[in-house]
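Researcher: Let's try something more involved. This one mixes different molecule types, so please make sure each is placed in the same coordinate frame as the others.
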Amino acid sequence: MTLPALDRTPVATRTNRAGLVLLGLLLLGGGLIGLVVGFGGFGSSNQGRPVLDPVARDFAATHDWFWVAVAAGCLVVAALALLWLRAQLSTDRLRTLNLESDRSRGATTMTASAVERACAEVLQARRGVAEASAVMLGDDYDYRLVLSISLNGRESLRAVDDVVQAEVLPQIRNVLDSQDLPVRIEYQIATRVRRVPM
Amino acid sequence: MTVKLTNRLLAVLVALALLVLGVLVVVEIAWVLLLGGSTEVLLPYTGITDYLAGLAWDSRPARAILIGMVIIGGLLLLTELRRSRPGLLTLASSGGSVTVGADRRSVEKAVAASATDVEGVSAAVARVSSRKISVSAVAGPRDASGLREALTSRMQSWLEGLNLANPPALSVRVDERKSR
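Model: All components are placed in one shared frame. Result:
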């Protein structure tokens, strides 16, 4: 079983893919239809006609409502383009953790970066771990933790994973008071045994 | 990651172009219809429409433009719809609310490094997909008989040590040309 790579900006990724697929379809479809016209696929009388037909040009020149419709279409396109640009700034990363599930009792929050730093420090102190980082994703009431752990090759992956799951995870979950906190652990396997800094 | 970054750059450029073009067209239309203007404000649309009015569908420039559109559109679709390789190989220790995995790229590097540790292998590369782990090794100058079996056995035990949830099939290829 495999999993896709972690995406911290899923909205931007999905929007970009959809937008670029649409652009690809428009270019491919438009180009193919134009080529078919040019090679006489819609009748030999059409293949020598200008791309901007004089009939269409005259129609546009004598009907103001046509330009109003074009302007409205362009405004819609510009608005969609603005939303597309805005999607680039979206992130799934959590800034604050809400520790109080009952809103009537007030709010107790903790900055996510503090939890992330603490997790990384706890992990880095473990044998077999060269580097570690943590990131919290989601929203205030539905979040998950992602741990990235680079191994130094001095311990097997299985040994490090046993320690992380048996000792480190319960510790983190206790601090966050969330025994069923969804966690994703990503191990970077060491190619060679790395020296441990003294 | 590279595809994602390229997508993002391309998306920003296309979105900016659409935004600017959309606004400019509205400005030109408003200038003519509402303010009674008769000349272009920023967009050289007279030149563009005159060029298109003189361009026949079967002319060489029109075909060149259309072929360019087909190529760019096709490449965009191929890139966007291509199935990406997995980011993580799930480990058997996953369960409940914990998902554990080994980073695919690091597995590829480690598999290649482990393969070169086998006596008689001078270089190796590995490629991991969701179904298969392919190891291509180059044999050293000495006799390479039995090298494939030794390498397969080494790779198999190395992969077992990873404790993958569903280990992909292993494919080992030894290039013996340089050993002759």
